[in-house]
Specification:
With 322 residues, the protein is of the alpha/beta class. The chain folds into two domains: 2-183, HUPs (Rossmann fold), CATH 3.40.50; 196-313, Rossmann fold (3-Layer(aba) Sandwich). The protein contains nine helices and 16 strands. Helix 8 links the parallel strand 15 (274-279) and strand 16 (292-295). It is elongated. The structure holds flavin-adenine dinucleotide. Flavin-adenine dinucleotide binds at residues 201-203, 227-230, 241-246, 258-260, 262, 264-265, 268, 278-281, 284, 297-298.
Length: 322
């Protein structure tokens, strides 16, 4: 069996992944074996529809909330766990930044050989690939040994081409046995693209005071932002600053904690769909501009909010009044 690692955006496979599927389905036909795919995150289930046009028989979906953010080691752990169970002869992915990194991690975990940026594959003994070196200025022929061969396909080495006949795609959702160390390196959601931003101002009180904001952003899958007062105080880097001289954000929800709402700050968050202000001063300009406001100390309010969100996420009943 050939296992294709698919990258997707909300269940829609990327163009490079469709190229990989095209190469993989041709390889599967040459090897007289079947093609299966693996993708990360519950939204990947939606990819089954498109995968049915690329000869895929089973779509394996790694389902763990912690995998929502990109973490190469964790994603690779999921793919390697699956490979140990389904025993593919080839694991194939894109040569995108993520694809290359994940497949390299899988190869290391499984102590198997990997060839990156392949343009041609000739199965058999020896298992031969042509791969790009030096940014494509040199083509190299290589022989891969090992019971499982790991490959990435160079971008646009071939055009994506759906198979003439469609397959019935079975879906297998699995929970990999992930460890905390798999998440040591994790890509955080960019401020400009985050659906939820938890912003902190001088009212947060200190750099350490941002821990509660970090926790809430993590729980909601969002990013942390801040005001210029905070960057001037050295509590956060300038890359976190929202505003005229910082990043312009457009989240679904902006939670502004201890931020007064100066015009230069509001310029950066006016595209937010909803603003929730947490402030001790009911007369703060941001309170007048927010959709919702909680008047109170930011640390006390966030402690209660975080506890409630944690409880709800754990599936426990809410303790808020009915
Ligand atoms: C040219 C120029 C460009 C600028 N660009 C930017 C920019 O890009 N981004 C930006 O943010 N600013 C920018 N500024 C600065 C801006 O004018 C404000 O000074 C800044 O936004 C204020 O930051 P703040 O709201 O965190 O602090 P403050 O104005 O000091 O407000 C702190 C708020 O916290 C509240 N608070 C205090 N304690 C607590 C507590 N315990 N719990 C809850 N609330 C509490 C207070 O009531 C107050 O509303 C710019 C200014 C200039 C002149």
């Amino acid at each position: 069996m050939i296992l294709a690692f698919i990258e997707h955006v909300a269940g829609a496979p990327t163009m490079l992944s469709l190229e990989v599927l095209t190469m993989a389905s041709r390889l599967a036909r040459k090897m007289g074996t079947q093609l299966e795919a693996v993708a990360i995150g519950p939204k990947a289930v939606a990819a089954a529809e498109i995968l049915s046009s690329y000869g895929v028989s089973t779509l394996h979906v790694a389902d763990d909330q912690r995998l929502d953010d990109y973490a190469a080691a964790a994603w690779a752990h999921a793919v390697a766990d699956l490979a140990a169970r389904v025993n593919p002869r080839v694991i194939i992915g894109t040569a995108s930044d993520r694809g290359g990194e994940v497949i390299a991690h899988v190869a290391t975990r499984m102590t198997m050989p990997m060839a990156a940026n392949c343009t041609e594959i000739v199965p058999g003994d020896p298992f031969t690939v042509t791969r790009q070196r030096w940014g494509g200025s040199l083509l190299e022929e290589a022989h891969l040994k090992g019971t499982i061969k790991l490959l990435t396909i160079a971008p646009h080495a071939l055009a994506a081409e759906a198979s003439p006949s469609r397959t019935q795609v079975a879906t297998d959702t699995f929970s990999p046995a992930l460890e905390d160390k798999d998440f040591r390196v994790r890509l955080k959601i960019s401020l400009a693209q985050a659906r939820v931003v938890v912003g902190g101002g001088r009212g947060v009180g200190s750099a350490e005071g941002f821990a509660a904001l970090e926790e809430l952003a993590g729980l909601l899958g969002g990013a942390v932002g801040c005001s210029r007062a905070v960057t001037s105080l050295g509590w956060r880097p300038h890359s976190d600053q929202v505003g005229q001289t910082g990043t312009r954000i457009a989240p679904d929800l902006y939670i502004a904690c201890g931020i007064s709402g100066a015009i230069q700050h509001m310029v950066g968050c006016r595209a937010a769909k909803h603003i929730l202000a947490i402030n001790t001063d009911p007369g703060a300009p941001i309170v007048a501009q927010a959709d919702f406001a909680v008047i109170g100390d930011v640390q006390k309010v966030l402690a209660a909010v975080n506890a409630e969100v944690r409880r709800v996420k754990a599936g426990e009943p809410s303790r808020s009044p009915a």
